[in-house]
Write a sequence for this structure.
């Protein structure tokens, strides 16, 4: 592991003082792939898994909420953001990369938090390595039900919430895009992930800054594999065998249907579910105090 300590100006905030100087480093997967990692804060380790797939880590604001409560460890998944642009884009490989981050930075046992696609990655990691996970936090995931797909409902709700921006989003979606157009399309699409539409574009712009590009090959490959896995494996049975505390958090205004998570909640032996009213897909942005309280109370268990 090569560590490169330096301050991250984008992480500075007018809120509480940072509990520890940021450290930024490269971690190597077991196949040599270089993974960008940042850790900050003090307390028990908490590894954060961003969504996508094919995006980069955007969980800095979430990490800052937990200063003094956890040593947060953020990373860009392979092929994404500041990590090496290298496959293969397979679920097993991403689980192995998460284990490398855990082993080289977090220690022998850690809490793991995943958001959206990252929630499924964190769940799969806990299933594969339960002895290495102390707590699992599943944020705005889409569940494990293979029979009641959530995506058609998401696509319909996406178009409804885009409203007057729908025509522009569809025009951008209909042809090959320049990097600037790719960013514009992403900002429009991400804006529907916030409940308060008056500030939604502002929040989406912040997510897209800096713009590190979307790895569409990674996105398509992993989404296809997850769909196949949910259809062909007994994920509910594997979740029933999972003996560790799980916190499921979502926003009531997420355009992904919340009933999609019911099967996961019912399958887990030791889970708590928290729904934050008035929040969308990124509940820590719109309900930061409630989100912090739910997570820190859970981590004290």
């Amino acid at each position: 592991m090569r560590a490169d300590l330096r301050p991250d100006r984008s992480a500075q905030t007018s809120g509480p003082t940072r509990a520890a100087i940021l450290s930024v480093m490269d971690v190597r997967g077991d196949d040599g792939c270089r993974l960008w990692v940042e850790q900050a804060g003090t307390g028990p380790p908490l590894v954060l898994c961003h969504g996508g797939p094919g995006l980069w880590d955007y969980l800095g604001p979430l990490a800052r909420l937990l200063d003094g409560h956890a040593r947060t460890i953020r990373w860009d998944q392979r092929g994404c953001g500041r990590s090496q642009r290298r496959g293969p884009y397979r679920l097993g490989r991403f689980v192995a990369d998460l284990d490398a981050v855990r082993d080289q930075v977090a220690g022998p046992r850690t809490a793991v938090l995943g958001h959206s696609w990252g929630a499924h990655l964190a769940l799969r990691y806990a299933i594969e390595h339960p002895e290495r996970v102390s707590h699992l936090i599943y944020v705005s995931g889409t569940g494990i039900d293979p029979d009641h797909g959530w995506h058609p409902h998401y696509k319909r709700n996406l178009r409804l919430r885009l409203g007057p921006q729908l025509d522009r989003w569809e025009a951008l979606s209909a042809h090959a895009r320049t990097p600037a157009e790719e960013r514009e399309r992403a900002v429009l699409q991400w804006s529907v992930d916030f409940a308060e539409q008056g500030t939604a574009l502002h929040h989406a712009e912040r997510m897209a800054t800096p713009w590190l590009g979307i790895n569409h090959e990674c996105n398509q490959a992993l989404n296809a594999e997850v769909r196949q896995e949910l259809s062909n494996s007994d994920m509910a049975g594997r979740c029933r065998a999972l003996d560790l505390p799980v916190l499921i958090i979502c926003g009531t205004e997420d355009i992904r249907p919340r009933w999609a998570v019911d099967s996961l909640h019912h399958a887990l032996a030791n889970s708590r579910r928290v729904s934050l009213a008035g929040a969308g897909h990124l509940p820590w942005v719109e309900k930061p105090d409630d989100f912090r309280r739910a997570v820190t109370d859970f981590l004290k268990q």
Q: What stands out?
A: The radius of gyration is 18 Å. Residues 2-299 form a domain with the Rossmann fold fold (CATH 3.40.50.1820). The chain has a mean pLDDT of 92. The chain has one domain: 2-299.
